[in-house]
Each structure stands twice: as C-alpha cells, then as structure tokens.
Amino acid sequence: GNLYGMCQRNLGGYPDMGVLFQYNYLSPAYTNKLTFIQANGSFPHSTNLIEISVCPCTSAPAQPAGFVGSKYVCGLTTVTYSVTAVPGVTYTWTLRPGMLSPVYNTAGNSVTVTIDQTVGVAMNGNLTVTASNACGTSTASSRLISLIPGTPTSLSGPNSLCGLTTATYTCTNMGTGVTYNWGWPAGMNGPATTTVNSATVTMIGTANITGSVTVTPSNACGTGGTKTKVVNSAPNALGSITGPTNICSSSFIPNGVSKTYSVIPISGIISYVWTANTGGATFAPNGGPNDFSTLATLSSNYPTCAIITVKATNQCFVSTSKTITVCRSTLSTCTARPLVARPIDMEEDAKEINLSTVNIYPNPSNGLFSVKFNANSNYQKMNLEVINLLGQKIYQTNINNPKSEINISSQQNGVYLMRLTDNTGKVVEQRKLIKE
C-alpha cells in the first residue's frame, strides 16, 4: 500500500538505509510513528531511524467528482456506480429503493447493485455519495435515477398554427428505451408514438384548430406523466383593455374628449379593430397591424356609459373580443378636468359645480374680486384658478386665508371661469366671473 498524508524526517542519515517496506496507514492521529527495517533485513539502530508522523487534515474533502453509471435502469439486472477515488477519504452511498445487495470496492468509491424492477416510481430520484475524513464530510454528489419515466419538463413547438402546413414538437429527452405517446387535436395529423422525443405533424384543410398537443413517455417498466401545450389557428387571446373607465362629465363640453385605450400586442396580427356601441365615439388609428393602441374621441353626446370593444385578426381567423365600459363620472367621483386650452361654455360650466363653498363679490367688477370661504370649508388645501373663454389659465394661486383676492384687472372685459380644486385635483367649485 501507500502512505497518505504523512510527514517524515531522517533521524540518523545512515547510508545503509535501503529500500523500505511500504505500509498503508490511514490513522489521523498525529503522534503515530512507523519504524522501518533496513534493506538487509536487520533491525536499525535507534539513531538511524526515519520517523514518519501522520499529518492532520485541514478541511473536509471536496465534493466527489466523476460520477458515472446508468441513469435509466429499466431492464437492467445489475448496475455499477462510481466516483473518482481520492486517497485518505471514506465514501458513504445512499441508495434508491429497489437497489439491492450493494457490493463496494476496496476504496469505497464504487458500488454495484442489483435492480428490483418491481418497485416502480419509488426508485425514481437521486442516488447520492459523500466523502469524509477526520475534518468533516463533503457536499453530496448525486445522479438522478429513473426506472419509470417521469413527466417531461418542456414541450416546445408553435402555439399559433395560422398559415402553417407542418409543425414539429419536441419534449424533454426522457432517456433510453422510452416510447413517446402523442396526442393531437382535430385538424392535426401526426404519429401516435415515436421512439425519439420529437414528432412532426401536418395540418388538415383550413379548419380552426383549437386544443392541446400532449406527450406521455413510457417504457417497459411503466408510464410517466403527461405534458400539454395549447395550440390554435385563431389569434391568441387578447389581454385586458387599459384606459380610463370614468371621465369627468365637464370634459365632454363642448367638443368632446380624447382618451387613449390599448391592449398588449400579440404576434401574427394583421389588424386591430376598435368599435363602440354608440355613435358618440371614433377611433384613430384603427384597423392596422400596429393599432393595438388607439385614441378614442368621445363626443359631447356620448351616453352616460358605453362599451368600447377591440378584436384582433390574423390571416386565418378573428380573436375573441375584449371590452371596457366607459362612463361619464358624477360629481362625487369626478376628478379634475384636464386643463387644455380649448373653448369652453362658461354658462354651462358655472352651473355644473356650484356648492356655495365661497362667496365672490363684487361680481361683476373691474377685475378685483374678493373671495370669502365659508366657515366649514377646508380652504388651506385648495388651489384657485381663473380660465378665459379660450380655456387658457390666466390666474392661479394657493389659498392660505379664509379671505382672498383675485386680480385680473389687466385682462380684457368679459366672462371668466373661476375653478377651485382640492389637494387631489378634484374640482370642488366652479363659478363664472364678469369683468366690466
């Protein structure tokens, strides 16, 4: 044998020390010593000795490497598994159920087992081995063993079949001796079984194919799980429409309002078509392959609530539709109207939101207006704006006192709109001002 992990020093240095006997000594004790005889067979004098001390380890062994042996054991009587041998370590094997009568080699890095073919899926799992020395135990090395095939972890191939005449589907390779059992929806013509992990199918006619491709592996020892992939000729299902569902009623006056609505784009689409169940809405762009986002213009005669719909079309079929309901908001749910420069109807707007939160005087005036808030109003969190007939904001201030002043004396004589909003942007008061 060989000496492993040893330190040595020559205590005598005599030239008559010839070839020494080798000794296999694996004890971790540091003080153990071995004394060798000389080549002529005589015992050495106490001064011409070689002292050999077993050196201590400094760390646990590395994870065992070079794991070999059959992963797929269906039909096998015996199998040998091994890892690369490392001197000075002990190996511990954890066998799978159904691995019987283990026989280990001298170094312990190899084991031969008898396979019980009747245990079924209980044998499926990791066979493991660790290496140990006086300093500890390594991380386990493992090998996944399969008696009966498991469930394929993947099944690749096209989901959308529109325009295709053939398609190939491939699943996880489940090992040697495996048969793959395939299932095809109506309109797809493919093999029932293959001995390889892929299959090619042809499309029958122009039918709208909808269903699932399935594959189930099996071998002489049993049948594994089924992997499924949904396929169809029509476009994939559209996601939900995004866009505002409640729009402040005042936003529709007088020329309507425009809002953006969209869906997540899907592949293979030649047109997205947007419609509404009312004549009060138009859409642009609309009907093109990139029109998954559109600007909806909702006219002033838009009803209280209406439904916007989108459908996607590929070169074969039309998708199922997606809808969103869009309503005019009442005062209690209305958020502030966008401050866009557009003509507004002062009389109509002034009538809409008048809760008598403030008293404005004199009105009409020469451009100087006093604004006095009621005692129960939360004026500290309000913003005051004045807007002209073109929808342009000409005056703005944050309210800090229960009594404030508006000065628009530099503006032309005419009618203006005063708007009060709270700290969330909600309109709490709209009143008309007249400058003379």
Total strands = 33
- Rg, alpha carbons: 43 Å
The quaternary structure here is single chain
Overall geometry: elongated
Describe the structure.
- The chain has 436 residues and is an all-beta fold.
- Helices cover 2% and strands 40% of the residues.
- β27 (358-361) and β28 form a beta hairpin.
- It is elongated and about 110 Å long.
- The protein starts with 5 loop residues before the first strand and ends with a strand.
Main attributes?
436 residues, mainly beta, 5-stranded antiparallel β-sheet, 1 helix, 33 strands, 2% helix
What's this, in brief?
The chain is mainly beta. It is built from one helix and 33 strands. The strands form nine sheets. Strands 13, 15, 17, 18 and 19 form a five-stranded antiparallel beta sheet that branches. Strands 5, 8, 9 and 10 form a four-stranded antiparallel beta sheet that branches.
Write the layout of secondary structure elements.
Layout: E1 6-10, E2 33-34, E3 50-54, E4 78-82, E5 90-94, E6 99-104, E7 110-115, E8 125-133, E9 136-137, E10 141-145, E11 155-156, E12 166-171, E13 179-183, E14 188-189, E15 193-194, E16 198-203, E17 210-219, E18 222-223, E19 227-232, E20 246-248, E21 257-262, E22 271-276, E23 281-284, E24 293-298, E25 305-313, E26 322-329, H1 346-352, E27 358-361, E28 368-373, E29 383-387, E30 393-398, E31 403-407, E32 414-421, E33 427-435
Parallel strand pairs: 20-26
Antiparallel strand pairs: 1-3, 2-3, 4-7, 5-8, 6-7, 8-9, 8-10, 11-12, 12-16, 13-15, 13-17, 14-16, 17-18, 17-19, 21-24, 22-25, 23-24, 25-26, 27-28, 28-31, 29-30, 29-32, 32-33
